[in-house]
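Record minuted for everyone:
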Amino acid sequence: MPCPRISAGSIHRVPSSPTYDEAGNRERIAHLVASGVDVWGPERVYIAADVSLGNIEAGASLINVNLSGADTRVGRGSRIGLSGLTRVENCQIGRDVELGAGSYQNATLLDSVRVRGFAEIREGTLLEEYVDVAHSVAFKNTVLTATVVTGSLINFCDIFMSGGTSRDDHSEVGSGTIHFNFDPRGDKWSSMLGDATGALLRSAPIFIGGNSGLVSPVSVDFGAVVAAGSIVRRDIGPNCVHVEVMRTHETQPFDRERYGLLGRRFIQTARVVGNLHALDAWYEHVRLSSIADYQKPLYEAARRQIERHIAERARRIQKIVDKLDRSIKKWEQTPGDSGTRCINEHRLLIENQQHITQALIESNTLPPPTQAVEAYQKQDATDGHVSRIRRVDDAAAGLFAEWLRTVAAQSADRIHKLLGAPTA
């Protein structure tokens, strides 16, 4: 059954912290221990009353953790709180996950994810199988598909990243890398490293060198390498190296109420959203088609994270369009060719605001190729999804890739048409 869509204007409210209840906590811990959960004692573990104890699988280890939220799940073999106090609220955690110290709220982490510690992971975040994250990271509205690795001191908000073929051949982000998603006008943009076809684990990995910066919105294609210490301000094509060239120092007038041309940024946003829709369809029609019982709530939660990210992108675009009346007035004070182009585009965006939102939120998902789905379902599911999709033959993988690209293209094609530009 498809998950309900989140409206563009919806706001996710984080529940208030639960009231401390020592006696009740001891009872809940005793219940979990009797059920086969390894709990390191009431001095180090607190289980809030709103946690459904049946969602904590036997064989999980709770070491240093404050666990809360009715939507929280912890799978067998997972170890929570390895490097210090770990706050987990309304997170869905698969099997064999390792979480170090930090704060994890309203996020979904699938099987065999590892986060070393001192993390802040928030809503809209989906970490797929074998994602490995080092220390002191901050994620929000971040989707990392299976096997992606990041170093320490990473700030990734509003990012979609994929690529690689296995845990030994993965996309990687070096330590100290930042995605600059927030601009001087208070707007937030998203970027895409790879695309939805990266979920098939047949793409060249992407390498982002340490101490790099991504100035959103940008796209980085499969096989690209960003040299350490570089700043990425433009899209990077496949299989090439990006090295930052020293920029000349210059000062230009800046008016935070006056926007330039926005078409490229809107189309880039639509590309990110389209690939999120494609990933959502991948879960709905493929990953949920034949799974173990414990995986279903995890995959459904994964879809909710994707939908949160889509809704956030639409909401951010709405906020920008709402400010364009003021920008038009500013441009009218200084007439000229560039001002005329901006005014015309701004008016077009205002007139089509509702259609733009619909183009981002709605997706007419085509069913995947039956032959490819059957090829996936025939694979042994014992070792999990990653092994399963890697065993699918190249012909089926090619059909899946074509389908994912078709689904992903819809949002950008609609924005292109609304702007009167040819489709990509």
In short: Confidence is low (pLDDT under 50) at residues 1-15. The first strand starts at residue 38 and ends at 39.
